[in-house]
Amino acid sequence: MVPMKRNLILFFLLCSSLLSSQISEEASISLLTIAHGDQLYNIFGHTAVRVSDPANEIDDVYNYGTFSTSTDHFMLKFLRGRLLYSLDKGPYSSFLRNYSNEGRAVTEQVLNLTPEQKNKVYAFIINNYELENRHYLYDFFFDNCASRVRDIYESQIPVLSYEDQAPSCKTFRQLLDEHLVGLDWLDLGIDLIIGSVADERADPRTEMFLPRYLKSWTAKMQLIGDSGQAEPLVKSERLVLPITIIQHKSYWITPIRLFYFLLLIEMGLFLMRRRISARFSYWYDGIWYVILSAASVIIAFMWFGTDHDACAKNYNLLWANPLFIILTWLHFKHRPAKLLLSILFLFQLSAMLFWPILPQQLHPAVLPILIIIYLKIVKGISYKKQPLMNNV
Question: How far apart are CA 392 and CA 384, in angstroms?
Answer without folding.
Answer: 17
